[in-house]
Amino acid sequence: MPRPTLPRLALLTLLTCLPLRAHEVAAEMAQAAGTFLVALDDGQRKLATYPLTDAERENWNFVPLARQGVPFKRLTADQQALGLALLRTGLSHTGQAKAQAIIALELVLKELEKDTKGRRDPTLYYLTFFGEPAPAATWGWRFEGHHLSFNFTVVGGRHVFFAPSFIGSNPAEVRAGPRRGERPLAAEEDQGLALVNALDADQRREAIFAQEALKEIVTTNRKRVDPLAPAGLPAARMNPAQREQLLALVRLYLDRWRPELAAEKFAEISAAGLDRITFAWAGGLDRRKATYYRIQGPTFLIEFDNFQNQANHVHTAFREFKGDFGHDVLAEHLARDHARK
């Protein structure tokens, strides 16, 4: 029996309406960004702003290093509140909770590593702006620090892109002290393990491409990514329950962002073909061992890796083959603007 699909008219209606909702998000972002930038002094604003086409826009990372932008360390409490208000325009409640948990882990690392040089600091997260935020403008912004990188691109005040995006967790599980048991990315790990363990022997042979986990996500902080090989087991060869587990895992990653943005992205993923989404695995089949998985569709890539620190250090990323930094749509937009001039 063929799987039920969204009626064509309903799908077209959904795809038509979603950009209107994304347009509302873009307007909120522009307003929140403008409010934040006005609250900065001249020196702070100079640190925070770059031209839209500056190479710095794609110079993203997720390790603890000094970044370009204005760090929360140099902001007043009121300015920090405005910066977090801007972050809330892009993230869901779930995404905000994950981000706050990751930032709070800097204090755990500070104690574990006996850091006296200020390397582990929950105020070393930076906001950086590219272009001028305005209701109908094309611009971008970044919130970034250790284990967090959120890159938003707004095109024409209507389209909002949120890749590349990275969330990591070190430790993946706090194993001692008053915060013992905290696992900020527990769902990403547990649902991945549940899916690989739900596969039968033949499916596992197609999905598992290495007995040892990869030491890092393959795409790291590349500016552009292409589909990875091997792709793994396609959803078309999963039973209905397994397929739903896979789609639930995709939604879990999308649910980091505002519901309007997540719904728009899932509609794009659906239009490209849900049965073409693949699942590939490397490493152990339980939490005692290092694990890696990737989920790929025609338009996107998700990576999960838990290898470092004796399998207690997680990296996750969401990438788009054409949508990272809104690349293709932004290039067309800039070309049209240049042609008008």
Q: Would you summarize the structure shown here?
A:
This protein has 341 residues and is α+β, with helices and mostly antiparallel strands.
What number of structural domains do the residues give? Answer: 1
Q: What percent of residues adopt helix (DSSP H or I)?
A: 40-55%
Specify the biggest β-sheet: 13 strands, mixed
Coarse structural class: alpha+beta
Q: Please write the string of helix (H) and strand (E) elements.
A: HHEEHHEEEEEHHEEHHEEEHEH
Determine the N-to-C terminus distance.
56 Å
Unreliable runs: 1-20
Radius of gyration: 20 Å
Mean pLDDT score, rounded? 92
Strand content: 15-25%
* Count of individual beta strands: 13
- Global shape: globular
- Supply the number of helical segments: 10
